[in-house]
């Protein structure tokens, strides 16, 4: 089981940041909440700070645990920890994704998300 963290980043207008995995990556073409693998001895929050700096060149502040979901893909099982976060600074520059969007929660069902992220989409949509 691989532990992974995902950030549900909200902007000042209440929109959520989603990103599409680029070609050549597992789950290519699917949308996700950005994040990455948690390294040994690293907290989920620190993982998210590191990953968003590496993958998008932005600084975020995870501020609240959202949920956890376990998912078995064909070759790997992951435990995905989601945290609500706010954007502190930076302009998004993609390295691991080919597109990003700021969307309203009500628009999420229009996007095809990676399977491990889908329970979080449903939870967010249930809150509106």
Automatic annotation (TrEMBL):
Keyword Cell membrane attributed: no
Needed cofactors: Mg(2+)
Entry annotated with the keyword Hydrolase: yes
InterPro entries on file: Mutator_MutT (IPR003561), MutT-like (IPR047127), Nudix_hydrolase (IPR020476), NUDIX_hydrolase-like_dom_sf (IPR015797), NUDIX_hydrolase_dom (IPR000086)
Nudix hydrolase domain ranges (all copies): 1-126
Annotated residues for binding of Mg(2+): 35, 55
Entry keyword set: DNA damage, DNA repair, DNA replication, Hydrolase, Magnesium, Metal-binding, Mutator protein
Biological processes annotated in GO: DNA repair; DNA replication
Protein name: 8-oxo-dGTP diphosphatase
Gene of this entry: mutT
């Amino acid at each position: 089981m691989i532990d992974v963290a995902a950030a549900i980043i909200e902007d000042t207008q209440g929109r959520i940041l989603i990103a599409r995995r680029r070609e050549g990556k597992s789950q290519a073409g699917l949308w996700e909440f950005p994040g990455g693998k948690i390294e040994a001895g690293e907290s989920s929050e620190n993982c998210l700070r590191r990953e968003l700096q590496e993958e998008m060149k932005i600084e975020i502040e995870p501020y609240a645990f959202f949920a956890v979901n376990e998912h078995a893909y064909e070759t790997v099982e992951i435990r995905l920890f989601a945290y609500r976060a706010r954007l502190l600074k930076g302009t998004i520059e993609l390295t691991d994704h080919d597109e990003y969007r700021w969307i309203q929660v009500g628009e999420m069902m229009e996007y095809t998300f990676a399977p491990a992220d889908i329970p979080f989409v449903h939870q967010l949509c249930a809150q509106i």
